Amino acid sequence: MKRLLIPALALVVGSLAVPALAQTPPAIIGQQYVPAPWWMRDPVIASIGYVRVELPANRAQFSASFQTVDRSVAEASRQAANQIRALSQTLAAYGIENVRVETTLSTQPLYDQYRDENGVLRDNMRPDRIERYQAQATIQVQVRDVAVLERVYATVVASQPASIGQVYFQLEPDNVAKTNLAAAAMRDARTRAENAARNAGANLGSVRVIDPTGRACQTDVLAGWPSYGGGGGQATTVDSEIVMSGSRMMAMAPPPPPPPPAPGQAPSEAQIEAARLALQPPLQVLTDQACVVYGLN
Asked: In the chain, where do the E strands start and end?
């Protein structure tokens, strides 16, 4: 009986060991036993550098519309085009690198109206009942240098459009700002790792893993990795001057000299100054994170 029992036990143990050896990540979430990442074979500390900075928006855009009404569709379109021609030329003088202008023109018929049996005013929508045509010229303005935003906006207002839209701001960081913020995230990861190791009574060792995306530090090895979560706790606020070092985004150059007004319908200098408003670009939040895994001594 003993001779038969020993091989049977060995067979059972061997059959249980096969699945464990064949198991490879990613493991199933919630599984009781999961393989640890290779960099956890020795004591390590995984640190997420998480930084944020507030920068003023460096782009702005808005639109304005001009309307004319005439019995001739051609004449209505011509008048509407004339209203924005001089304005477009004035804004184009700032240069395409500072101000970009897009214009569109549309027309619609205005029909004769009548009241139905309930007294409701309705349009007599028949081709032979068109009374006049309404033409609408729309100008889309994108300001890529916010230093000239107030003057550009005042120029459009002084042109007396039928309607003008809200000014929308956005931040387009350049490559210098992105690179400096990524470097700040790496430095923040080391600072957090040094503080954590010191407070735990350990010494920081050599670097095991560097992951600029931050995902390596978000593996939940206790619940069954990989389990990527979001964020790295509270972000460290960094100095905007450090992030923008060497960048032209924060260089608020003075506005260029006023462009010469086009003959005819362009607003005068006095009209532009009278329509000037304070338009301060709001602050936008920019964040970045990085993961660095250190050994512990």
From this structure: 44-56, 59-70, 99-111, 113-115, 121-123, 130-143, 163-164, 168-170, 204-211, 236-237, 283-296
Distance of CA 135 to the CA centre of its chain: 35
Q: Looking at this protein, which amino acid is placed at residue 220? A: D
Element (H, E) at 29: none
Q: Is 293 left (phi over 0), alpha (psi -120 to 50) or beta?
A: beta
Secondary structure class of 170 (helix, strand, coil): strand
CB 139 within 8 A of CB 162: no
Q: Which residues contact 129 (CB under 8 A, 6 or more apart)?
A: 111, 112
Q: Are 187 and 172 in contact (CB under 8 A)?
A: no
CB 88 within 8 A of CB 141: no
Q: What is the pTM of this model?
A: 0.69
pLDDT in tens, 266-286: 787 888 888 888 899 999 999
